[in-house]
Amino acid sequence: MGKRLTQIATRTGDDGTTGLGDNTRVAKSSRRVQAMGDVDELNSQIGLLLCETLPDGVRALLVEVQHELFNLGGELSIPGYELLKPEALAVLDAALAEHNGRLPRLEEFILPAGTRAASLAHVCRTVARRAERAVVALGEGEPVNDTPRRYLNRLSDLLFVLARVLNRLDGGDDVYWKSERLRRGDAD
């Protein structure tokens, strides 16, 4: 692969604009740049999660997710272009089915807590939801392919499930919300 970045500090963004992949310039406050930034932050948070001790299958899955998020960000940076393929969504669906199938049914809401790895997965989940909202907002004003929105929605679900998986690595469990309903004994 050829060298893509020859200079990092170009100073061209000093005026409050940034260049997209199609060489157009847009305001750094644009919805497109917001969505790209949220996807970049999500990818960085997953990189932090990967610093933890994880099962090999989870690690490999998250590394693949990082590559797909890079594709998603690239797609957002080139209006009208498709880089994130529907097959990436199928990978998430399969992982969701596999990991969720091994977990006990939820009876109550859980807190974003537990082990460090599980808590980091919850942070990733919330950033994925924000990135999804940014892509939806972008789509309200400009054409955006369906796959990025669907991918982020499914990824946030997967990260929730992985947090539950990670809380169980050493015999742990979810951290359940102590709701007033349960405290009163109104549970169905």
TrEMBL record:
Keywords: ATP-binding, Cobalamin biosynthesis, Nucleotide-binding, Transferase. Its EC number is 2.5.1.-. Residues 8-165 form the Cobalamin adenosyltransferase-like domain. The keyword ATP-binding applies. InterPro entries: CblAdoTrfase-like, CblAdoTrfase-like_sf, PduO-typ. GO terms for molecular function: ATP binding; corrinoid adenosyltransferase activity. Residues 1-24 are annotated as: Disordered. GO terms for biological process: cobalamin biosynthetic process. It catalyses: 2 cob(II)alamin + AH2 + 2 ATP = 2 adenosylcob(III)alamin + 2 triphosphate + A + 2 H(+). Belongs to the Cob(I)alamin adenosyltransferase family. This is Cobalamin adenosyltransferase.
